[in-house]
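Preliminary data (for renewal application), acetamide complex.
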Amino acid sequence: MKVGFLQTFPIFGEKEENTQKAIHHLKQLDADLVVLPELFNTGYQFTSREEARTMAEPIPGGQTTQALITLSKEKQMYIIAGLAEREQDRCYNSAVIVGTKGFIGCYRKLHLFYHEKQWFEPGNNGLQVYDIGLARIGIMICFDWFFPEVTRYLALKGADIICHPANLVLPYCPQAMITRCIENRVFAITSNRIGTEKRTDEALSFIGTSQIVGTKGEILYRASPDREESMIVEIDPPKARNKQVTPMNHLFDDRRIEFTFP
Ligand code: ACM
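Predicted structure:
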C-alpha cells in the first residue's frame, strides 16, 4: 500500500487558494492514501468564534469536503484532511476521510490545544476505525498525540495506520510518535504544516517534520522543518496485526488493566 503525506504552508483565510494548491499537488502523487495537515484549508490562528464560524464548513456538504471527494474518485486515492467543521452555530476542529466511493467519515478533535478552546467545541463523536479494505485506518488530530490512550484506543479497535493531521508548534511530537508506534505496533503518518502565523500578539511557528513511522518505530521518512513537500512510501499494513513482542509477550493480552487503569 502506498501511503504518505502532504506538508503544506496554508495562508490564513485563503481557503480557495489553499485547497486548490493542495489539490494540484495531490494530483501529481501516485498513492493509495494521503494525509493532509490539520485545518489545511483555513490556516490555524483564529481570533474569534465568529471568524471560525465564518470559515468553517458543514461536513460532508461543504465545498472543501466536496472538492476532496471529487479528487479522491478521480485519483482512486483515500484522503484524510483536517478542516474546521460547522454544525449549526458550533465549530469543531475536524478531519474527514474520503475515498473512492465518496465520504467515509469525520472525526472531531477530542483534545483541543491552547486557544483552540476559545473557538472550537471539544469532539463529541468518539474515535473510529475505518476499514478501507487495504488497511484499517484510525484518525487523531495533532495534540491528541499527547494523550497516549488515544493511539492505544485506536490500536485496540484494530487500526493498522494512525492518520494524524497536525499543526504542531511544540517540538516533541515527531520523537513521541516513534514510541506510540512501538508500544502499539502500528504505522503512523503525521502530516504537519510549515510557516508562521501572527494574527495576535503571539506568533505561532509550525515545525514541519511531517513523518511516516513503521510498526517498530522506524522513521520511514521525516520531512524538512521548513519546506512544502510530500512523500509516499510503500508499507504492508497487516504487519500491524501481529502484536506478539516475544513468543511469551503480547502487547494487548499482557496488559494489567486491573492495576494500571485507576
Ligand atoms: C495542536 O494541537 N494543533 C498543537
